[in-house]
Design brief:
With 55 residues, this protein is mostly helical. The protein has helices spanning 21-24, 27-40; strands at residues 4-5, 12-13. The model has no long low-confidence stretch (mean pLDDT 80).
Length: 55
């Protein structure tokens, strides 16, 4: 199999159209949007849900 470089992020890929799987499903864009939303909503405190342990 021939190795290509992704045209969006320059990662190595084996896809014939030169777009890696990560860029194909838009993970970098979703990450940027998440960071932007967190920066805009800095007044809110984020908490992880409490996990109840059964004994």
């Amino acid at each position: 199999m021939k190795v290509y470089k992704c045209i969006k992020c320059n990662n190595r890929t084996h896809q014939n159209d030169s777009i890696c799987a990560v860029c194909r499903i838009n993970i970098p864009q979703m990450f940027e949007e998440l960071i932007d939303l967190i920066k805009r909503d800095n007044g809110r405190k984020y908490q992880l849900p409490k996990i109840l342990e059964r004994s």
